[in-house]
Structure formats: structure tokens, C-alpha cells
From TrEMBL:
E.C. number: 1.4.1.21
Family: Belongs to the L-aspartate dehydrogenase family.
Residue intervals of the Aspartate dehydrogenase domain: 161-246
Record-given protein name: L-aspartate dehydrogenase
The organism of origin for this protein: Cerasibacillus terrae
SUPFAM superfamilies: Glyceraldehyde-3-phosphate dehydrogenase-like, C-terminal domain, NAD(P)-binding Rossmann-fold domains
Gene: nadX
Keywords of this entry: NAD, NADP, Oxidoreductase, Pyridine nucleotide biosynthesis
One GO molecular-function entry: oxidoreductase activity, acting on the CH-NH2 group of donors, NAD or NADP as acceptor
Pfam family of the protein (one): Asp_DH_C
Enzyme kind, highest EC tier: oxidoreductase
Amino acid sequence: MRRNIGLIGVGAIGNFLLKEINRDKAHGIKIESVLVRDRRKYESLQSEFNVTLYTELNEFLCSNIDIVVEAANVEAVKTILPKAIKEKDTIIISIGALADEYFRQHVLHLANIHQHTIYLPSGAIGGLDLLQNAQTLGTVKEVSLTTRKPANSLVDHAIMDEVVVFEGKAADAIKQFPKNINVSIVLSLAGIGIDKTKVTIIADPHVDKNNHQVEIKGDFGSATFSIKNNSLPDNPKTSYLAAMSILGTLKRINGNVKIG
Ligand SMILES: NC(=O)C1=CN([C@@H]2O[C@H](COP(=O)(O)OP(=O)(O)OC[C@H]3O[C@@H](n4cnc5c(N)ncnc54)[C@H](O)[C@@H]3O)[C@@H](O)[C@H]2O)C=CC1
Ligand SMILES: O=C([O-])CC(=O)C(=O)O
């Protein structure tokens, strides 16, 4: 059982996890340790959620934790994951960090040598089970993602009508929108890769949800997933489902039945 969690980053997703896991105590798991950059800013979490704060990665990794959960950003994954995966299984939500081929191969190598697992939750989308099954024989031909978000999540000036802010491959989408399109990288890794997965990002002043449309075609047939996500109150860029997918992953790791 992975009961004790070490959390990296307390923003919209980190707050959700602290409230759901430590306040409810209903999931058989507990966040024990939290890695932050500024201890003073987060001091109150210690008494509110009965956690220990760390600002030093090594001390955090040596604390009483079974699994690390990252809920920070792509840059944090780049600096933290190589060390973390040597010591612990690790759940990553800023999956965009793995778009860098050299970095991905490096951390997969470390995971293999140290016999730890990198878990990549499906985040704000779905259908990754189907995509991985359809691709077992390498016969998926096309994968595309169209993401439509409220305009102010994507552009810093007011717009009256929708604007396509990106059209191209996932590899380039994550470079331009590292806080908005991590989903394109998990989709790429489950399917046909970051250079073949097509991405369109639309800033839309007329929507209040984060919409993702995934289209898959291959020898299996075709599939379409359309997801209309409510966002988390603390960060409109981030979908509620993305936070829930971490909790779901933690529950499935500890479960005795694996579905999908
Ligand atoms: N895979 C997916 O489907 C999705 C991924 N995401 C990604 O999840 C991550 C977290 O999302 P939110 O909680 O909404 O972001 P947020 O911006 O609300 O919170 C991130 C927190 O991490 C902290 N942080 C940054 N670097 C750190 C470091 N080196 N050590 C410790 N703390 C650090 C920040 O101070 C901030 O409090 C983001 O990278 C976001 O892009 C978000 C939604 C969906
Ligand atoms: O939460 C979402 O809808 C998607 C997102 O921000 C990401 O993939 O980075």
C-alpha cells in the first residue's frame, strides 16, 4: 500500500488534494510531507492539514513517504523528477516536461534502474485506455486534440470573438502553452508521439469551461471524446477532472482490481 504521500506544490491541484485526502481521511491515504519554495507562505498548512513542510528536496524525499505527487509545473518536474524517481514512485501531472525526448529517456532509464514507476494520470481528458489498446500493434493513424478554453486563460488582452492561438504538433503546443496543454503530451505518449499528434488551441470569450475534443483513427476504427470540464476555483486554466485524476490514480494504485 502507498499510504503516505509527499506532495510537491500547493496551488489549485495541491489544495484540492490536501482538502480531499487529509480532511476527509476517507481514502486510506494521507499527505504527510509537502515540498514548497517559501515556507512562510505555507506555514499554516502544518496545523490545518497535519503535514510537515519541507523546502529541501533531499529532506522531503527522506521523510516518511511512499509515493511522490507533483502538482507544481513543468520546470519543477525537470529539476525534481530525476532525483525523486531514484527514491520513490512518482505521479506527475505537469506531463509537458516529458515532451523533451532526452529528459524523458533519462528519467525512464532512472525509473528502470531504481525499480520505480512514473504514473501519468489522464488529467483533464479521457480515452487513453482506448488509445493505448488501439496502438498496441502500432496501427493508429491519426490523433488530434482541439482545446477550447475561456479567452483569459490563453491571451492577456480582451477579445470579442474566438481566436485560434495555436495549430500544429503537440511538441510545439507545449512549448508555447506549458500551463494549458499538458493533456496533449499524455495523449501523445499514449498514442503516436509528440510530432504526429495534432493540436489546435482556441481562446474563446464565450465559453466558461475547458473543452477538449480528442479524435482518434486507426485500424481499430475511430473514436471521438468530447470533454467539457469545470475548472478549479483557484485556477481557471486547470480542470477539476485533472485534480480528480490524481486522486483516482492513487486509489487505483492501492486497489486490488485494475480496470482498463
Ligand atoms: N495533465 C493535465 O491534464 C493537467 C496538468 N496541469 C498542470 O498541473 C500543474 C499544477 O496545476 P495547478 O495546481 O493548477 O497550478 P497552480 O499554478 O495553481 O499551482 C502550482 C503551485 O506549484 C508551486 N510550485 C512551482 N514550482 C515549485 C517547486 N519547484 N517546488 C514547489 N512548489 C512549486 C507554485 O508556487 C504554485 O503554488 C501545472 O503544471 C498545470 O499546468 C493542470 C491541468 C491539467
Ligand atoms: O486542465 C485542463 O483543461 C488542461 C490543462 O490545463 C493542461 O493540460 O495543462
